[in-house]
């Protein structure tokens, strides 16, 4: 959900990071953290649920690379170009490793932020938090 200031709430941000990471997954590493605990209907963003289902189907059929191009190829090149562009934008903006790297690099480079610790958060932590938010569990 977007708040009154036009920003995403925490659950939407985590959804975006999960699906953005899966759309950049070249070896199935991220999917393995999700496959037994996340279902497509858990995503508030219906496109993300649809994309997650496609990614699940791909893994079921033995594919490990799940980039937008891989999804398009898996679907017999029938994926709508606008949808692929949306996938690419989410993959570009919300990939877990990219966001984590940029955050840590900004702390190293900005003298005003040097006192802040580098993040050691894992993708699994995002998956766990997503599950908690979906089921309304308090943060542990």
Q: Can you offer a commentary on this structure?
A:
The chain is mainly alpha-helical and 140 residues long. 58% of the residues lie in helices and 0% in strands.
- End-to-end C-alpha gap: 22 Å
- Percent of residues in β-strands: under 5%
> What is the molecular shape?
globular
Integer average pLDDT:
87
- The helix-strand sequence is HHHHHHH
Give the strand tally: 0
In helices, the fraction of residues equals 55-70%
- CA gyration radius, whole angstroms: 16 Å
How are the elements arranged and paired?
Blueprint: H1 10-22, H2 29-34, H3 46-60, H4 68-74, H5 81-94, H6 96-109, H7 123-134
Helix pairs in contact: 1-3, 1-5, 1-7
Q: Which key terms come to mind for this protein?
A:
7 helices; 140 residues; 58% helix; mainly alpha
Summed up, what is this model?
By secondary structure, the chain is an all-alpha fold.
């Amino acid at each position: 959900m977007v708040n009154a200031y036009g920003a995403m709430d925490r659950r939407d941000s985590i959804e975006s990071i999960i699906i953005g990471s899966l759309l950049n997954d070249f070896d199935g590493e991220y999917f393995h953290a999700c496959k037994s605990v996340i279902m497509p209907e858990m995503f508030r963003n219906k496109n993300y649920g649809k994309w997650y289902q496609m990614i699940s189907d791909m893994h079921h059929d033995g594919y490990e690379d799940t980039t937008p191009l891989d999804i398009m190829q898996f679907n017999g090149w029938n994926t709508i170009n606008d949808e692929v562009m949306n996938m690419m934008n989410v993959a570009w903006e919300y990939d877990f490793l990219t966001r984590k790297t940029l955050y840590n690099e900004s702390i190293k480079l900005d003298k005003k932020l040097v006192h802040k610790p580098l993040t050691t958060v894992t993708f699994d932590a995002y998956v766990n938090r997503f599950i908690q938010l979906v089921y309304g569990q308090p943060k542990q």
